[in-house]
Structures are given as structure tokens and as C-alpha cells.
Design a protein that fits this description.
Elements (H helix, E strand, L loop, with lengths): L2 H26 L8 H19 L2 H11 L5 H17 L4 H24 L6 H18 L6 H9 L5 H22 L14 H15 L6 E5 L5 E5 L2 E6 L6 H20 L15 H15 L3 H14 L7 H8 L13 H19 L8 H13 L25 H20 L3 H7 L3 H10 L9 H9 L4 H17 L5
Parallel strand pairs: 1-3
Antiparallel strand pairs: 2-3
């Protein structure tokens, strides 16, 4: 077998290991009994160690070197470029650190879940400190020569992103959001929905919605979890999870639409490139652009609620559902505590807080025990609210318990990408809003398939974005969208 055949055979093996590990993680967050935590930690650590050792084996580097010296076609060049970048990073991490991180993350997740349930950060702090220590060790191993240790973590989620790029972007976005919030200060808010709807009915609604949007239930499923997430276990197997609240149907439905956006991206990746490594998302910012596009740009629009109202009425025929009232309630702008329940206008403030805290932890300014107080101070200063409890504050997100330091910026990158994709799509599909109102989402999903999904990771996310959006300014696109939609609801316009 030549180097290319050897390489693709190994990548297929690695994909199988990754899928098995992802299956265990999905089970851990959905149906696994709590007493299985220690056993699961051992299982996942073994799979992570095997993956790392098989990926960083000397022969893998030899195959890459041989291929780099040969004439290759476009697919081969893209695959070799991708694997070289990942391989050169992976060989810097000892297997012992990979295994230790896997165990710490499994233990951390269950400690976080118990701490959140008990509203007691102290139950989580020791496990979080262990994750922090190992993450700093990981960043040090990966980030030799980097301008900031956080850059090494960003590379895992959004290759090419740096603190030097993100800081001014967050600063500019924060200023623009502040201007908008100042303009609507004191204006009357749309009325909240104030409905109580049984969660069984909401679950049926979510199943209907994800099918209508275009998620293939023959290649995936929808379940419940404490914190909504999506994971691809392999070609033909994409798992969504969501959650429901009896007194807040819009929150649960928003989570469902968000995860369906992720899931449709996973299902649209090029299956014909399985074994090359190119049938994967090009970056988590691009991934989040898909979920945020559907959740916000589509899922908070008036045409969307004209589509949704009769579906609500079919499940709860004794109720009346006004599209206009649903639209207004879904677009209330309010400084709130919980990121996943935030409106479009304030959402990125939540990411700005987390970005700042993660930088401080990587720089050694904050330890785990310092995070509750630092969180409250940052929320007071940036968002304008302070949590009455750890459950609604520092314990609200699952990410740190899973060691996902460096992921949070992807949400804002995704919001920015989505804003520019939306503007380009409106120009390409003049009947866009009519299609949404009719529930005919196939042309919209088809546009995303062609321009984003089918590209896989042949190119980096930033290059895919530029291919689609050209020289559009995503910050301006997002801010303009906020003024257009929410400004109209609040009776203000941009000066």
C-alpha cells in the first residue's frame, strides 16, 4: 500500500475511535446512570489514549512527509495540509496528559451536574481546578512561540483565530451593543408570552420542527439532556439533544432549532470524503453560524411564527397563538443572567464575559475558587446583572466541566458569520421570507449545503466565509440586523 492508502486507512480507524468516544459522551449526558461515572472515565480515557497514540505514531508523520513530496490532486493536498497541522500539534502532547485530561473531564462533568443541582460551586471547584491545571499544561505544550497561551486552545476550535484578533472584535461589538441598549433604555418592552404548555406537547412540537427544517431523522435522533448539544457519531448518525420548560416554550424550542442547525450541518458534510478527514466541519465558529442562523435569523422572525402558529394550534387546540405576539415575545431585549436564554441583542455580552474570564485563567490570574466572584463582577460590569445563585451564574454552562476552554468565542464568531450569510442569502433567494412562512425550508437548506456544508474542511472556515460573503463586514451586518429587527419593535432607529 502506498502512503495515501495507508494514511486514509489510519484516518478511517481514527474516525471509528472518535465515533465510539463520542457515543460514550452522548450516553453520559443523556441516559447513563450516575454510578457509572468512574467506569465511563476509564473507558473514555482508554479511547482517547488509543486515538492519540495511533494519530501521533511515527509512521503517520512519515506518510505525510512522503505525500508532501509528491504530486497530489486537490483532495489529497487539502487532506495532507489538514493532517499535517493537526499532527504537528498532537505530537506535542504526551499520551499521559491526553489520558489525564479525559479522566478529569469525565469526573468534572458529573461534579458540575451535581454542583448545579445543589447550587453549590464548592462541589465542583476541586474538579475544575484539576481541569484548569491540565489545560494550562496543554496550552503550554501546544503554544510554544504563541503570542498568548489562549491562542493554542483557540486553534482546536477556530484555526487561525488569535487573542490579538478577537480582543478588538469583542471590544467593537461590545461598544455597538451598548449603543443599541442605550437607545432602547426606558422604552416599553413587548409583553412576555406567559404561557404554560406541557413538556410532552413541546417534545412533539420539537420533533415536528426538526423534520420540517430538514433534519433527517433516519440519520439521527432527538433526545433530552441537562444542557442541549449535538454530536456526530459517524456518517449517518447525528444526535441532537434539547430541553423543555413548561413555562417557556420559546426557550426550549430555540434550543431545538439551534441544535437542528448543528445537526443539519453534520448531515450535510461530504460523506464521499470519509477516510480523508475532510468530511468534518471547518471550524466551530462556522458550526455555530449554522445553528445561530436557524435559531435567530429564521427562528425569531415574524414569517417563522406565521409558519409555527398553526403547528402550535394543532398540539394545543384549546389555545390561540398569535404570530405577532409570539414574534414580539421572542425578540424582547433584556439584560438576563443565562446565556442560552439571552436575546439576540445581549447574547454576545455573555460571550465577552466568558472570553475575559478564560483569558484570566490561562494567564494564571484566576484559580477555580476565584471564578464565582470574578463571574459576578464581570456580569455586573458587562451585562448589567448579578446572579442570585451559582446555578444561574458560574455553574450555568457545561463547557468548563468538559475542558472546552477556547470554545466560547466560537459562538460570537458564528453569530457574525451567520449575519453575513443571511444578507447574502436574502440577495440570492428573493422569496426567502415567503418560503419561511410556508414552511418550505428546502431551498434555504440547499443554499447552505452548497455554500458551506459540502465544502467540509477542504478550506479553513475563514476562507469559506470569504468565498461566500466576500468583503462584507460581519460586525456591521450583525449590528445592522439588530437595529432593523429589534429597533423596529422598540421604536428606535440607528443614528
Amino acid at each position: 500500500m502506498d502512503a495515501w492508502q495507508n494514511l486514509t486507512a489510519r484516518v478511517a480507524e481514527l474516525d471509528a475511535l472518535a465515533g465510539a468516544s463520542a457515543t460514550l459522551d452522548w450516553d453520559q449526558q443523556t441516559y447513563m446512570p450516575p454510578k457509572a461515572a468512574d467506569t465511563r472515565g476509564t473507558q473514555t480515557a482508554l479511547l482517547q489514549r488509543l486515538y492519540h497514540e495511533r494519530f501521533t505514531a511515527p509512521e503517520f508523520g512519515d506518510w505525510l512527509s512522503e505525500l508532501e513530496s509528491r504530486e497530489l490532486d486537490g483532495t489529497q493536498r487539502a487532506a495532507v495540509r489538514l493532517h499535517r497541522r493537526r499532527y504537528d500539534r498532537a505530537v506535542k502532547l504526551p499520551s499521559s496528559l491526553v489520558s489525564a485530561l479525559s479522566i478529569a473531564r469525565t469526573e468534572g462533568f458529573h461534579a458540575w451536574a451535581a454542583a448545579k443541582e445543589a447550587d453549590d460551586f464548592n462541589r465542583f471547584a476541586p474538579k475544575l481546578q484539576r481541569i484548569l491545571d491540565l489545560t494550562r499544561e496543554q496550552a503550554a505544550a501546544l503554544g510554544e512561540g504563541a503570542a498568548h497561551p489562549y491562542d493554542a486552545l483557540l486553534e482546536d476550535y477556530d484555526p487561525g483565530s488569535t487573542v490579538a484578533d478577537l480582543r478588538p472584535m469583542f471590544d467593537r461589538l461590545g461598544v455597538e451593543i451598548g449603543k443599541f441598549l442605550g437607545a432602547i433604555e426606558g422604552r416599553p418592552h413587548p409583553e412576555p408570552l406567559g404561557l404554560r404548555l406541557d413538556v410532552e406537547g413541546q417534545a412533539r412540537l420539537s420533533q415536528r420542527v426538526v423534520r420540517d427544517l430538514g433534519f433527517d431523522m433516519e440519520g439521527g435522533r432527538l433526545d433530552r439532556s441537562a444542557h442541549p448539544f449535538t454530536t456526530g457519531l459517524g456518517v449517518g448518525d447525528v444526535r441532537l439533544t434539547t430541553r423543555y420548560f413548561e413555562d417557556d416554550v420559546l426557550s426550549g424550542l430555540g434550543s431545538t432549532i439551534h441544535e437542528a442547525g448543528h445537526g443539519m450541518y453534520e448531515q450535510g458534510l461530504p460523506a464521499n470524503l470519509a477516510g480523508t478527514g475532510l468530511n468534518q466541519a471547518a471550524g466551530m465558529g462556522l458550526h455555530e453560524s449554522q445553528s445561530r442562523f436557524w435559531e435567530n435569523f429564521v427562528g425569531r422572525s415574524l414569517p417563522w411564527f406565521r409558519y409555527l402558529a398553526p403547528r402550535l394550534g394543532a398540539i394545543w387546540p384549546e389555545r390561540e397563538f398569535s404570530p405577532e405576539r409570539l414574534y414580539a415575545a421572542a425578540n424582547r431585549v433584556q439584560r438576563t443572567l443565562v446565556r442560552v436564554e439571552a436575546d439576540e441583542a445581549t447574547y454576545n455580552l455573555h460571550i465577552i464575559v466568558r472570553f475575559g474570564l478564560e483569558l484570566a485563567t490561562l494567564e494564571g490570574q484566576l484559580q477555580a475558587v476565584d471564578l464565582p466572584a470574578a463571574w459576578d463582577e464581570a456580569y455586573r460590569r458587562v451585562v448589567g446583572v448579578v446572579a442570585p445563585s451559582a446555578r444561574l451564574g458560574v455553574l450555568q454552562d457545561v463547557h468548563w466541566s468538559s475542558g472546552l476552554f477556547g470554545y466560547f468565542p466560537s459562538y460570537t464568531i458564528g453569530n457574525l458569520y451567520a449575519a453575513s450569510f443571511a444578507q447574502k442569502m436574502l440577495a440570492d433567494i428573493p422569496a426567502f421570507w415567503s418560503l419561511v412562512e410556508r414552511g418550505d425550508f428546502a431551498p434555504i437548506l440547499g443554499w447552505l449545503r452548497t455554500h458551506v456544508h459540502e465544502k467540509g474542511s477542504r478550506s479553513d472556515a475563514v476562507d469559506i466565509f470569504r468565498e461566500v460573503a466576500g468583503n462584507r463586514d460581519p460586525v456591521e451586518d450583525l449590528v445592522s440586523h439588530l437595529w432593523s429587527r429589534h429597533g423596529a419593535l422598540y421604536g428606535v432607529s440607528r443614528s
